[in-house]
Model the fold of this input.
Amino acid sequence: MSEKLAQGAGALLARSTSRRGFLRRTAVFGAAASVAPMRFLLRPEPAMAVVRPGDCGGKCADGWTEFCCSIRRDKANKCPANSYVAGWWKCSRYHGGKLCRREGARFYVDCNRMPGERCGCRCGRNRCGFRRTCCNNFRYGQCNTQIGGVTEVVCRVVTCTRPWRIPEFNCNSSLAKDNRTCSHEAACDCGDCARRRDEWTRERLRRRRRRRRERRQVEPLG
Done:
């Protein structure tokens, strides 16, 4: 039945869209119909909204949130516009081959939905092979404490720099640790991770030099 649905949708779309748009929409429709055919027929939802954790096995159903660079079109390792840095935790036993492999430890940073913004629970990229986004209502709470409440985690950022040393994150140093996540990797190569890490390092060094200058200015002479 799901195959007939996809074929019928393809014939309809071919008359009203470009070849590229036709192929994309047919693929989305086929994926949605094959994952949850009765749900797609009986509920008035677009195909892009159907693929949710309850429809899948694999990563989307494992309970964890997807990485930001895996769901952003620009593959940037940073929070999306509708979110803010809400908290962080440390993985102290990282043995993977991606970002922070030299350090052997990495920090995961949660980007939570900004209050007032909308974000529906679904699988990343609407595919079962990606972890969920906007599903887990949770907050560690070390960052941006001026923003009240708890909202859904949109996605995660990875950094090798201590989050409280990254000015734009606005975090404190209260430690949270979960080594179960050390095996979690992004589906992308983390886009501009190396560049952003260099920027954070330079900013930290600038702040350190500024503090030293300030201390020298207040030290008594003689």
